[in-house]
Specification:
The chain has 366 residues and is α/β, with parallel strands linked by helices. The protein folds into two domains: 15-156, Four Helix Bundle (Hemerythrin (Met), subunit A) (Up-down Bundle); 159-365, Rossmann fold, CATH 3.40.50. It is 40% helix and 17% strand. The chain contains twelve helices and 17 strands. The strands form four sheets. A seven-stranded mixed beta sheet has the order 7-6-5-8-11-16-17, with helices on both faces. Strands 1-4-3-2 form a four-stranded antiparallel beta sheet. A four-stranded mixed beta sheet has the order 12-9-10-15, covered by helices on one side. The protein is globular, with a radius of gyration of 20 Å. The relative contact order is 0.11. The chain binds 5-S-methyl-1-O-phosphono-5-thio-D-ribulose. The site of 5-S-methyl-1-O-phosphono-5-thio-D-ribulose has 17 residues, from helix 3 and strand 10. Residues 66-69, 112, 177, 179, 183-184, 189, 216, 255-257, 267-268, 333 line the site of 5-S-methyl-1-O-phosphono-5-thio-D-ribulose (MRU).
Length: 366
């Protein structure tokens, strides 16, 4: 049984309409995972609460929460719920329950590597030989999930600071998708760079790509920039080439869902087109991402799985059908930008330039 927001009865009971404003996109609150429901923004601010890992997996799949770092944090707290809810009485039973929950969470979305990174990190901690009893493992799982969330905020502030140095005073930057507080635990990656420039008083204006089909730019990025008082202009995706050619864009800045070892970048569909247009017009193209988004196990972008989403996202805008019934649709949610189009990748550990693989190896060794 579902209500108008697509929530089960149990979840709907927990929805708080416009009352509580959360400090972070996602929080652990006394055994419950609370997250801002991003599906109803900018018009309705709602908080959804989840008490088991299957609910969190659904929240990731159905985009209550989205953006690579936010998805990683959600997966971590999902595993903490699984640990809390398991009635295992031995170490092996609990680890088996955690692995089962992790498999369900892994299925939620395929492209953002932070999901898998967070789950692997927590499972590694949970399986430490020194943790023998379930009551030692349960708090360790929650502690690791909380650390992932806390670290994310600090990491994003570092990315912001590192990236701000690349953006000249008074710049106009073009931004795609959502990379702000909502796409992370707080502060944002590419939007974190924009925030840092703004906080430094350098002056910045953002051209916000609407980002069809889910309109993360039009719905979420505009909402965040408005709350932060950062000047912005919303544009249709198709207008980006016009603005890049006109000479009024000083830099393009985007986030990433997964970066391959060679520097190829998987990000929201439409990113590749922007990168090519940026190069053609001599505009720097920056990618801001935490090192947890760099997947050293993947050699090149061609090996990154690209999520194919529901045809409805393309055939409708909101509740309105815009295409004839039954039309064939392709809806890849991400694309690959080859590293030759990337001017630099801004991480919390510094700014990386081509050849990316060498610098990535150094970062991970350090
Ligand atoms: O499908 P989404 O909304 O999860 O896609 C989000 C993006 O592509 C973001 O740009 C990316 O995750 C970087 S987030 C800091």
């Amino acid at each position: 049984m579902r209500d108008g927001f697509g929530l089960s009865r149990r979840e709907a009971f927990f929805v708080v309409k416009g009352i509580v404003i959360m400090d972070r996109t996602i929080e652990w609150d006394d055994g419950v995972v609370r997250m801002i429901d991003q599906r109803t923004l900018p018009h309705e601010y709602q908080i959804a609460e989840f008490t088991d890992h299957t609910g969190v997996a659904r929240a990731i799949r159905e985009m209550y929460i989205r953006g690579a770092p936010a998805i990683g944090a959600a997966a971590g707290f999902g595993l903490a719920l699984a640990a809390q809810n398991s009635d295992a009485t031995t170490r092996d039973e609990l680890l088996s329950d955690l692995n089962e929950a992790s498999d369900i969470l892994r299925e939620a979305r395929p492209t953002a590597v932070n999901l898998f990174w967070a789950l692997d990190r927590i499972l590694k901690r949970a399986s430490k030989e020194s943790l023998r009893a379930p009551d030692e493992i349960r708090p360790a799982v929650l502690d690791e999930a909380q650390q992932i969330a806390d670290e994310d905020v600090e990491i994003n502030r570092c990315i912001g600071k590192n990236g701000a140095a690349l953006i000249p005073a008074g710049a106009t930057v073009l931004h795609h998708c959502n990379t702000g507080s909502l796409a992370t635990v707080d502060y944002g990656t590419a939007l974190g760079v924009i925030r840092a420039v703004h906080e430094q008083g350098k002056g910045i204006r953002v051209l916000v790509d609407e980002t069809r089909p889910r309109l993360q730019g039009a719905k979420l990025t505009t909402w965040e920039l408005k709350r932060l008082g950062i000047p912005q202009t919303l544009i249709a995706d198709n207008a980006a080439g016009h603005f890049l050619h006109s000479g009024e864009v000083d830099a393009v800045i985007v986030g990433a869902d997964r970066v391959a070892r060679n520097g190829d970048v998987a990000n929201k569909i439409g990113t590749y087109k922007l990168a090519v247009l940026a190069k053609e017009n001599d505009v720097p193209f920056y990618v801001a991402a935490p090192t947890s988004t760099i997947d050293m196990s993947v050699a090149a972008g061609a090996d990154i799985p690209i999520e194919e989403r529901d045809a409805d996202e393309v055939t409708r805008i909101g509740s309105e059908h815009i295409a004839p019934d039954g039309v064939e649709v392709a809806n890849p949610a991400f694309d690959i930008t080859p590293q030759c189009y990337v001017t630099a990748i801004i991480t919390e550990k510094g700014v990386v330039y081509a050849p990316f693989e060498e610098d990535f190896a150094e970062i991970f060794q350090a």
